[in-house]
């Protein structure tokens, strides 16, 4: 993070919600920045480099939260939590699709807000691999765990922090079936063990980026009702 006190950017045009969130966060050790429009939010991320963005979906001035998240992802990997009054599955998945790390449905309690923010910040700070597992090679897929770098053959693959953490969990247990609950607890935290929709969404995003044919995956294999496995061929016989 950028300092002793983590900085959260609140992007919302409802003064009452902004005031409540600011009071809760400041009282628990966070510095708070605010923005009321999408353009202000993008500029604040670029100039102030917050540690986390709390981003409302419904914003004025022709740019909604999805648009803002997509623009931010063009230049920053800052964790993003979407604020939404909607709880339809399609809205949540669309948020993940543009790079959000989590969501909170309004209205929310202060305790839930803090728990979500701390969980996302913890995931963002997960330490890279130890030197003994600095790189994993899986066919043409090369995963440099120490430098957070992924490539397929000669092509660099850009992943969000959460996508990388999920791939890392699969890669460090390659050719092993990882249960849904185990993956969710490892990547998102124990409180997310039953949120299988999170996992399915991110598996889909990883396949889009890694698989030659996402509908016929070669690397990330589904074991229906159980979990997923990163399937890696045996290395060529050195002899």
Describe it for me?
- The chain has 239 residues and is an alpha/beta fold.
- It folds into 2 domains: 118 residues, Rossmann fold, CATH 3.40.50.2300; 100 residues, Winged helix-like DNA-binding domain superfamily/Winged helix DNA-binding domain (Arc Repressor Mutant, subunit A, Orthogonal Bundle).
- The chain contains 8 helices and 12 strands.
- The strands form 3 sheets. It has a 5-stranded parallel sheet with strand order 2-1-3-4-5, with helices on both faces. The chain has a 4-stranded antiparallel sheet with strand order 6-7-8-9, with helices on one face. Strands 10-12-11 form a 3-stranded antiparallel sheet.
- The termini are far apart.
- About 2% of the residues have low confidence.
